[in-house]
């Protein structure tokens, strides 16, 4: 009889492979750079990609980047991430950068929130390294709950119905953003991380409870209490409206 870990790994991997087929996320000769924050989602993503890469069909390469932000107390153990990547035979690039919280250059009308600036600067480092290495894709560890929460947040605060794409072709560079965990439930990743013994981040982001996303999660949980099928209703609406793939 299979253990809970084995059953959970199979369910996550099956959803992971299904996402590749459904949204055409993977092709022969892809060179993928994984954004490795050190949280459970990115660790799971890298593990699944490394496992898939050993099958050799399709053939693709995987490397990882961990961006350290000097002025934000949001850290993972670099030693742990190095050992984790070595165990998967995945090269790891560690980049250190920082940003000015008072920076208004990205929006002259008002000061941006630290979460936006931190995320923007992390993405900038990922894009720079991806182009330097010759990667054609960047993989991010957003799961299905992330995409559903984003859809609700955009609908509530922006008056538009869309979300983060499973596959996004960048307009100004020859790079695609892919989210291979887009069909995986957060609860499965959380339990898998516990059973696999993933090391938790040494310091959490000081702004993690300051955003609207925390309230949206509460709203989403209420929706699931009202209708256990709410997840699938919202997801199917995104599929019907073509919100999960953006090509230019």
Rg, nearest Å: 18 Å
Overall pLDDT metric: 89
Helical content stands at 40-55%
CATH superfamily: HUPs
What is the CATH topology? Rossmann fold
Number of strands: 7
Shape field: globular
Specify the CATH class: Alpha Beta
- SSE-based structural type: alpha/beta
Query: What's the architecture, going by CATH?
Result: 3-Layer(aba) Sandwich
Instruction: Estimate nothing, just give the exact number of structural domains.
Output: 1
Strand arrangement in the largest pleated sheet: 3-2-1-4-6-5-7
Give the biggest beta sheet.
7 strands, mixed
Strand content: 5-15%
In N-to-C order, the SSE pattern is HEHEHEHEHEEHHHE
Number of helices: 8
In the predicted model, the low-confidence regions spanning at least 5 consecutive residues are none
Task: Please name the defining characteristics of this protein.
7 strands, alpha/beta, 46% helix, globular, seven-stranded mixed β-sheet, single chain, 248 residues, Rossmann fold
Outline the secondary-structure elements.
Layout: H1 4-23, E1 30-35, H2 40-53, E2 60-69, H3 78-87, E3 92-97, H4 114-133, E4 137-139, H5 144-158, E5 167-169, E6 176-178, H6 186-196, H7 213-226, H8 230-240, E7 245-246
Helix pairs in contact: 1-6, 2-6, 5-7
Q: Please, could you describe this protein's structure?
A:
The chain has 248 residues and is α/β, with parallel strands linked by helices. It has one domain: Rossmann fold (3-Layer(aba) Sandwich), CATH 3.40.50.620. It has eight helices and seven strands. The chain has a seven-stranded mixed sheet with strand order 3-2-1-4-6-5-7, with helices on both faces. Helix 1 packs across helix 6 and helix 2 crosses helix 6. The relative contact order is 0.18. The model has no long low-confidence stretch (mean pLDDT 89).
């Amino acid at each position: 009889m299979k253990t809970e870990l084995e059953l959970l790994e199979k369910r996550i991997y099956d959803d992971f492979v299904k996402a590749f087929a459904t949204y055409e996320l993977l092709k022969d000769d892809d060179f993928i750079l994984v954004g490795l924050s050190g949280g459970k989602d990115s660790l799971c993503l890298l593990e699944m990609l490394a496992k898939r890469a050993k099958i050799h069909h399709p053939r693709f390469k995987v490397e990882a980047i961990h961006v350290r932000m000097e002025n934000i107390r949001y850290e993972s153990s670099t030693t742990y991430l190095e050992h984790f990547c070595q165990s998967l035979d995945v090269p790891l690039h560690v980049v250190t950068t920082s940003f000015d919280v008072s920076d208004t250059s990205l929006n002259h009308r008002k000061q941006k929130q630290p979460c936006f600036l931190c995320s923007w600067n992390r993405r900038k480092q990922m894009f720079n390294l991806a182009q330097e290495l010759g990667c054609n894709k960047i993989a991010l560890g957003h799961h299905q709950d992330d995409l559903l929460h984003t859809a609700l947040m955009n609908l509530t605060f922006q008056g538009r119905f869309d979300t983060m794409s499973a596959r996004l072709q960048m307009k100004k560079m020859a790079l695609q953003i892919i989210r291979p965990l887009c069909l995986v439930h957060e609860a499965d990743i959380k339990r898998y991380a516990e059973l696999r013994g993933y090391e938790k981040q040494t310091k959490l982001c000081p702004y993690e409870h300051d955003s609207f996303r925390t309230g949206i999660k509460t709203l989403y949980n209420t929706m699931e209490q009202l209708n256990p099928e709410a997840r699938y209703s919202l997801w199917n609406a995104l599929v019907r409206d073509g919100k999960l793939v953006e090509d230019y």
